[in-house]
Amino acid sequence: MRAARQIQSPGLSGRHLGNTYSFASVIFLLAAAGLVVGLKNYLKLPGWAGPADTIYAAHSSAQNLDVKKGMASTLAAFVTASGGGSVGQYGPLVHFGASVGVLFRRFLDNRFAQDIFIGCGVAASISAGFNAPIAGVIFAHEAILRHFSLRAIAPIFVASISADTFDQLLFPSTDATFVLTQAVPEMASIVPIFIILGPLLSLVAILFMRSLRFTAKLAAAYPYSKTNLPFIAAFICGVVGIFVPEILGIGVGTVNELIAGNYALGMVIVLLVAKLTMTALCIGFGLFGGVFSPALFIGVATGSVAAAALHMAGITDVDQVLMISAMAAVAASVIGAPISTVMIVLELTGSYEYAVAAMIAVIISSLVTHRLFGLSFFDRQLLDRGIDMTQGREAILLGQTPVTQCKMAEYVSVTDSTTGRDAYAQMSAARQMEAYAFDSQGRFSGKLDLFGAQEAGDNPIADKLDVEPIVLIETDSLQKAMGIAANFVGESIPIVDESKQRLVGVVTEGDLFHAVLDMQTNVRRIERA
């Protein structure tokens, strides 16, 4: 039996050459685009929020999640998917969970840091969304927090188990999401297949992610009103959906039909190409949604094509394990969470053997993707914003902490008209090798060392000043300050305002090192406690 076709509505369908085509997809998607655009304009949002924002907020002390934006993004994704958009729901669900976690933190004791509340919300969302409490815990640590610590594990476990308990209570279900009828062959017979297939699955995942980035660039370069873009995507996706309705929405039913082998090879290729392009178009052009469900669809379709190729070589008993493993490999490469994806396979299929088989394809695909593209699609989104997650939590915090938060050092203050003798006396009394000079209006004019004061003697020091010393701007981060200090020779570094006319304070190299060491200690406490 083929996947459920879209609903045939009176007045929204027609016949051509004996086939019935429904135009409902165009109408519903245009209506969804109108609701999404209206919601964005009504709330005056600059854009939607997703897992990339969740990851950044979990690693940042300065970045707080916008709860209103998070809730609105979830609603927009729900509207898009309900209208038939070729998008997923789990990415927005992850951000929704994080937003709820941050919202709870506002009303509860703040004994736990923001990242733990975010981890609890993410774990709960995955647990309830996939009926996968173990995967929820692992995903929160692997993909979002990116560290394991006792202080985080306990509350995240509680949140994940609680979400799964309430989900089973309110929506009881004992059926596995994916229906499997084939036994897993001996590992020795499928390992060579996965070793060859793994890099190919990585290339499919990279193609998918690059397509998402390409359509986003097209949207950014669109010369007319950006409000038109969701409607353009809705119309094109709706028209494609008239002929290939299987690619509309989340597509779990179609995935099961693919796993069951109910599509011919030609149709599978059509589904693969249509799903990949329409998902990229919808998300890139502003019909907001997730990328995880489409990645599952694309992975299964790719596995189905690979299975057909193996059939031609006489290998016929690996179809379903190939599709499930391909599904896991593409999804893991897109979201950057190989362990979590294997656990999701285990909990969605209820099969330990399928999960073990999927591990091979997942790890090979993830390694190749990491080398050629990056850890995940979300990390690349953050990198486009100038946030490099590969540097770790410490580098992010150093980049967010202004140098003015360092302990300021004492310094000798003189004027341009001060004689060298007087300046020397002040520096000697303060046991300082340098002084900072100001003009009659209090503007910073330069730096004077002890030898310059000696040379000036009874003359004003103005001619002996270093008028272009190495300086820090008050908005510079600790990370940038450390880079500047690496090439600095002297007693202290002045911190000045943007116009470089006012001295904010001075710091020594020791002050900078102490600030960095304190931050490293805090990061170790967060990640290892």
Write up this protein.
The protein is mainly α. It has 3 domains: 13-170, no CATH class; 187-393, Clc chloride channel; 401-521, Roll (CBS-domain), CATH 3.10.580.10. Helix content is 61%, strand content 6%. It has 21 helices and 8 strands. It has helices at 24-43, 51-58, 67-82, 90-107, 114-130, 133-145, 150-170, 187-220, 228-243, 252-259, 265-284, 292-312, 319-335, 338-349, 352-372, 377-384, 392-400, 420-430, 450-456, 478-485, 509-528, and strands at 13-16, 19-22, 412-415, 434-438, 444-449, 472-473, 493-496, 503-507. The strands form 3 sheets. It has a 3-stranded mixed β-sheet with strand order 3-4-5. α20 links the parallel β6 (472-473) and β7. α3 (67-82) packs antiparallel against α4 (90-107). It is elongated and about 100 Å long. Mean pLDDT is 88; it is low at 1-11.
Secondary structure blueprint with pairings:
Layout: E1 13-16, E2 19-22, H1 24-43, H2 51-58, H3 67-82, H4 90-107, H5 114-130, H6 133-145, H7 150-170, H8 187-220, H9 228-243, H10 252-259, H11 265-284, H12 292-312, H13 319-335, H14 338-349, H15 352-372, H16 377-384, H17 392-400, E3 412-415, H18 420-430, E4 434-438, E5 444-449, H19 450-456, E6 472-473, H20 478-485, E7 493-496, E8 503-507, H21 509-528
Parallel strand pairs: 3-4, 6-7
Antiparallel strand pairs: 1-2, 4-5, 7-8
Any key phrases for this structure?
21 helices; single chain; 3 domains; Clc chloride channel; mainly alpha; 6% strand; three-stranded mixed β-sheet; 8 strands; CBS-domain; disordered N terminus; 529 residues
